[in-house]
Amino acid sequence: MNTIFNFINQFFAFLAPITDAVWDFPTNIAWYKHIPILGQFSFPVLLLMGVGIYFTIRTRFIQRHSFAPAIKIMLARQPSKQGVSAIGSFMLGLAMRAGPGNIVGITGAISIGGPGALFWMWVAAFFGMASAFTESVLAQLFKEKKGDEFVGGLPFYGKRLLGNNHFVGFFLSCVFITYALFNIPAQTFNVFSAIGAIAQATTGHHYSHQSTLYYTIAVILVIACAFIIFGGIRRVVAYSDVLVPIKAVIFIGISIIIILINFPLIPYFFREVIVGAFAPHAIFGGAIGTALAQGVKRGLMSNEAGQGTITMAAAIANNRHPCEQGLVQSFGVFFDTMVICTMTGFIVIMAHVWTGSVDGMMWESVRASKITLYLTSVHTLVPSSVATIIEIIMCACYGLFAFTTLLGMISFAEISANFISKKYSFILIIRILGSLVFVPFGILTILAGLELGNLWYISDLMNIVMVYLNIPLLLLGLPFVLKALADYRKNKGVSFDSEQYGFMTECWNEKKDVK
C-alpha cells in the first residue's frame, strides 16, 4: 500500500515547481521583485484585487447595499418550491467559504506578514464583495431548471457569454470538477487532524494512525459523507443549514469570550493592526509589501470572491430578482472575512506569541505549524484551568469547518456536472467519485501515515486556474450584471425580465424555451 501511495506522491512531484511558478509570477523575476511594494504582489493577487476595485466602481459601491437587504432577503419566504431558499444558498456558500483556512490561513498570514496583514485582508474583502456580487448575479441570470431544482454557475454562464459554445461550458465543468475532487483529500486530512487533536487533548494520549480511533473515524466519515451526498443537493443544504450556524456560532462565541477575558488588550490589537499595516515589525520582514501581499492574498483566497467556486451555490437559489443572490453572496464575503477570520486575527494578535522571539530561528520554529500556533495563542489567552476545554471546542470547530467544506466541494462538483449531463446515472458517478473514492483515498493516505504533500499541489494549481478562467468571464458578463442592477434599483427588486434588456435567459423572461 505504501508503495502505491509513494508512487502517486512522486507522480505529482512535477507539479510543485509549476504551481509555485504560476502562483508567484512575476515575483520570481528579479527586476520585478525589486520594485518597491508592487514587487511583493503576484499577478493572481493583482488580478483579483484589481477587478474587485473595478467592479466596485462600476456597481457604484454595491457593498453599501449588502447588509440590511441581504438579511431581509434571507429571512423572506421562498417564492416557490423550485430550487432552494436564499438562506439555504447562503449557508451552502458559507460551508465552502468558512473552512480551515479561516483558522490556519489567517494565522499563517499574520505569522508571515505581521498583524498589519489583517488590515489588508479587510481591504481585500471589501473589494471582493463586488466581485462576489458580479459572479453571483451572472450565476442567477443564466441558471437552468432541472425538475424542481435549479443548476448553474461558472460553466453555464461561461457558455452563454462565449457565444453559446457548448464546448466552453463542457471544458469549464470538467476543470471545476477536477478542482473540487482534488481538494477533498486535504479536507479529509483536516477532519482527522481535528478529531485526533480532540482525542489527544481529552485523554492525554497520542494516537497512532493505525489505532482503532483512526479506523473508527474513517468508517464514520465515509458513511456520513455518503449518506448526505447521496441524498442530493436538498439534503446537503438541509445539513449545511444546521452545521454551518453551529460551527459559526460556537467559534465566534468562544472567540468573543476569549477577547472579553483579555479586554485590556483590545487597544493593543487595533494599534498593532493599523500600525503594522504600514510599518511592520522587523521580525516579520519589516516591509509594508509583505504585510500587504499576505493580507490581500489570504483575504481573497479565504472568501473565494472572483474564483467562480461560490457560483454553484448562488445558482441553485430561488430569488425574486437575480440581484438578490448577488447581495446575499456579497454579504457572505463580509461575514466570512470581517467576522469569522477577524476572530482568528484577534486571538493570534492579542496573544502575540512572537514577543520574546529575539531571533528569526526561534520564531520560524514557532510558526512552522499554523494550527499549533493558533492553539498556542488560545492557551496564552485563557486561564489554564479551562485551556484544555477551549482547545477541544476550537478543534471541534476546525473539524466542522473541514467537514462542511468537504461536503461543499462534492456538492459543487455535482452542480457543475449538470452542464455535462443532467441524467441521474451521470450525477451518481460524481457522488460516488466524491464520497466513495476521493474521501476514502484521503483516508487511506492518513492511515498509511502519508500526507502526500505533492498531491496537494494539484489543488493549488487548479485554484489559480479557476481564477484565470473566471475573471475574463466576469468582465465579459459585467454589462448583463449592470443591466440587472439598474433594474433592481429602479423597480426595488420586484421582478426582472431579461428580454426587456435585450437578452434571453431560461429563468428570467417570459419565453422559457431558451437553450
TrEMBL record:
The record, for Gene3D superfamilies, names: Amino acid/polyamine transporter I
Q: Where located?
A: Cell inner membrane; Cell membrane
What is a single Pfam family found in this protein's UniProt entry?
A: Na_Ala_symp
- Cite a single GO MF annotation: amino acid:sodium symporter activity
Q: How does it sit in the membrane?
A: Multi-pass membrane protein
Q: Which residues cross the membrane?
A: 37-57, 212-230, 242-261, 273-293, 333-354, 386-412, 424-449, 461-482
GO CC terms on record?
plasma membrane
First-listed, main subcellular location of the protein, grouped into a coarse class = membrane
Family, similarity comment: Belongs to the alanine or glycine:cation symporter (AGCS) (TC 2.A.25) family.
This chain belongs to the protein called Na+/alanine symporter (AlsT)
Query: What phylogenetic lineage does the species belong to?
Result: Bacteria, Pseudomonadati, Pseudomonadota, Alphaproteobacteria, Acetobacterales
